[in-house]
Design goal:
The protein is α/β, with parallel strands linked by helices and 353 residues long. It has three domains: 45 residues, 434 Repressor (Amino-terminal Domain) (Orthogonal Bundle); 132 residues, Rossmann fold, CATH 3.40.50.2300; 138 residues, Rossmann fold. Helix content is 40%, strand content 16%. The chain has a six-stranded parallel beta sheet with strand order 2-1-3-4-5-11, covered by helices on one side. A six-stranded mixed beta sheet has the order 7-6-8-9-10-12. Strand 3, helix 7 and strand 4 form a beta-alpha-beta unit. Helix 1 packs across helix 3. It starts with 9 loop residues before the first helix and ends in an 8-residue tail after the last strand.
């Protein structure tokens, strides 16, 4: 099999010439009023040697010829985006912000993560004519395909914080701190055996939560039990969610408190009722990523009574949009990533033991 020749990037030109990518971009777009002749010669030599062809997007964006369209990259089939309140909240927040800014929104569903090269080719093509930048959702810790945008000087912002990694443009909710606060509260209430019901163990959110959980167990010298976790895939069925919650609750030594994402709330409540387990008398519950506009569907557990960490998906999405526009309008300005604080709201689904 022949090796495919890698396309030369603006970062390669900058490295060869010994200058910054911004300087190369300025040269390509003839913004070299203050540029030394020696610098221009080095850049042109690098372009010639490396056979670099500037992308249309580099010329279009830096020349301020904008399409006034941004692309949202989402990770699943469009048929599943309304399984929870997350994406409806995201679309509403960004839609309003885009309308106010005079921008249009394009949604790209990235279903098969194994076809990164093919999909990136398509997305880079979009950046050449149709969109000014990208907002990327639902990251995985081991899937940093978005760095290709950075290498090509294409504006992007990720929604999500990758654990132990900061070298990218991100806006995210501070799930690590929010989760630690929730566990701290349960421990203050006398709980020493905690369970979790979460979605997609490889997502950046669940990774940071798992790390926070392990840090808190170590801090308070509490035992760790793998069986206290229910981890379902993003494509789980309602029956699978119920069965996982039911299995957790049927354990002889079940947790005294459980933290669960909003997607499994109804399944957990139903499984608890079927097993004769009362909330909070028999088990305390904290709902993660709680949405104010999402009805619980069970009158005995009105939403105002839940101990919860309220979702900031709308605020974070709007912030990501604003920061992306900042990158589009000022590509040379240093990007400052942002973490949105999450507050624990105490309700009636937890109690001291």
């Amino acid at each position: 099999m022949k090796n495919k020749k890698m396309k030369t990037k603006i970062s390669d030109v900058a490295r060869y010439a010994g200058v910054s990518q911004t300087t190369v971009s300025n040269y390509i777009n003839e913004r070299y009023e203050k540029m030394a002749e020696e610098t221009k010669e080095k850049i042109q030599q690098a372009i010639d040697v490396l056979d670099y062809v500037p992308s249309l997007s580099a010329r279009r964006l830096s020349a301020k010829v904008k399409s006034k369209t941004i692309c949202l990259i989402i990770p699943r089939n469009l048929a599943n985006v309304f399984d929870s309140m997350y994406f409806p909240t995201v679309f509403s927040a960004i839609g309003k912000a885009a309308e106010e800014a005079g921008y249009s929104i394009l949604i790209y569903s990235r279903n098969n993560r194994k076809e990164n090269e093919k999909q990136m080719e398509y997305l880079l093509g979009l950046s050449q004519s149709l969109v000014d930048g990208f907002i990327i959702f639902d990251l995985l810790n081991n899937d940093m395909y978005f760095k290709e945008f950075e290498h090509n000087n294409i504006p992007y912002v990720c929604v999500g914080k990758i654990a132990d990694y900061d070298d990218y443009h991100y806006v995210a909710s501070d799930h690590a701190k929010g989760f630690e606060d929730a566990i701290e509260y349960l421990i203050s209430q006398g709980h020493r055996h905690l369970g979790m019901v979460v979605d997609n163990k490889d997502s950046v959110v669940e990774v940071v939560r798992r790390q926070a959980y392990e840090r808190m167990l170590e801090k308070y010298n509490l035992p760790y039990c793998e069986g206290d976790f229910c981890n379902l895939s993003t494509k789980h069925t309602a029956e699978e969610a119920y069965n996982s919650c039911d299995e957790l609750l049927k354990k002889e030594n079940r947790p005294t408190a459980v933290l669960l994402t909003a997607a499994f709330r109804r399944s957990f409540i139903r499984a608890a009722k079927d097993n004769g387990i009362r909330i909070p008398q028999d088990i305390s519950v904290i709902v993660l990523e709680y949405y104010k506009d999402d009805e619980m569907g069970y009158s005995e557990y009105p939403k105002k009574d839940y101990t919860r960490i309220e979702s900031k998906a709308g605020e974070v999405s709007k912030k990501a949009f604003e920061k992306l526009l900042g990158l589009i309008d000022n590509p040379d300005k240093k990007f400052e990533s942002y973490l949105e604080p999450l507050a624990l709201v105490i309700g009636k689904t937890t109690m001291e033991i």
